[in-house]
Fold this protein.
Amino acid sequence: MCQISVSKSEQILALLKSNPNIIITTHSNPDGDAIGSSLGLFHMLKTLGIKTSIVIPNEIPDFLAWLPGSEEIVRFSKQKEAAQKLIGEANVIFALDFNGPGRLEEMKGDFSNSKAIKILIDHHPHPEDIFDWKLSETKASSTAELVYEFATILNAESKINLQAAQSIFTGIMTDTGSFSYGCSNPRTFEIAAKLISKGAKVEEIQQQVYNNFSENRMRLMGHALTNKMKVFPAYRSAFISLTRKELNQFKYKIGDTEGLVNLPLSIKNIIFSALLIENTDYVKVSLRSAGNFEANKICEKYFNGGGHINAAGGKSFVPLSETEEKFIEILKKHQNELKHAR
Ligand code: 5GP
Ligand code: MN
């Protein structure tokens, strides 16, 4: 695995300009950083005269569908043949915002079998050793920030046009909770400022991402907070669990629970929060923490997952009620760390 740096930029540019079939991909159930960084790279490379296709495992949530270029994204779940053809013919694959093929879910096999040169741009810890090139930096706020850095390395900052700027800004903004966590490095704000100079419209992006939900989604939030949130002050923790039935009742659409797991952290002295969502064959676990309590370690150890220190996810393969009990057991087991977390 070769680190992407200025000294390698000629080599990388030569590869990208040699007319290969290039695809950009990102993780399943994409968030703002996944889609924002993918579209940011797509638009930047396009201005450089380099054509790419974006292929993702499943749906684009509505709150990101307004981003320019999103209509061109090929979804493996809906357009399997087209997606498999693109992956099969690819000579270069950019892997954005994930650190191993497991996060591609249904697309994992096609990605792993591909002989294409794989280029990782990501900010998760411990990238798997399957990539040929990597721009991997856990200190970066987001993968979108690293896409900006990638453009800088290629001496192509000027190729970040309005569409790329809007996309990259969306990635940084959503992965930092609107610049409220994971962004204490001045570089994040420098890049944000540059994106605004390039035309990124902060108010428009905020409006599109955060003020565009359905009434049902708002009521689902209300239900979750009023009826489903369980708070454990002694463990400085809380969790919310939602059954399929409840989600159906509120006509759940992908993206509707985005942000919900963060809300319990705004309760005084709560530093660890979980969202447990019933799926057909597993329970999706989302964890968030504040300070030095490592949510990713909990996910790795108990929920077949991983992520960042303060934002992690995974899966539980026992029923929802048992997953709730398991979570409470975990709180008991880790009560000392929870108590002393800073
Ligand atoms: P979310 O809770 O929003 O689904 O995910 C939060 C973070 O946890 C993601 O940015 C990602 O880093 C990580 N994550 C989520 N789901 C998984 C998973 O199934 N496996 C791993 N390794 N990480 C995950
Ligand atoms: Mn990210």
Notes: The longest strand covers residues 272-278.
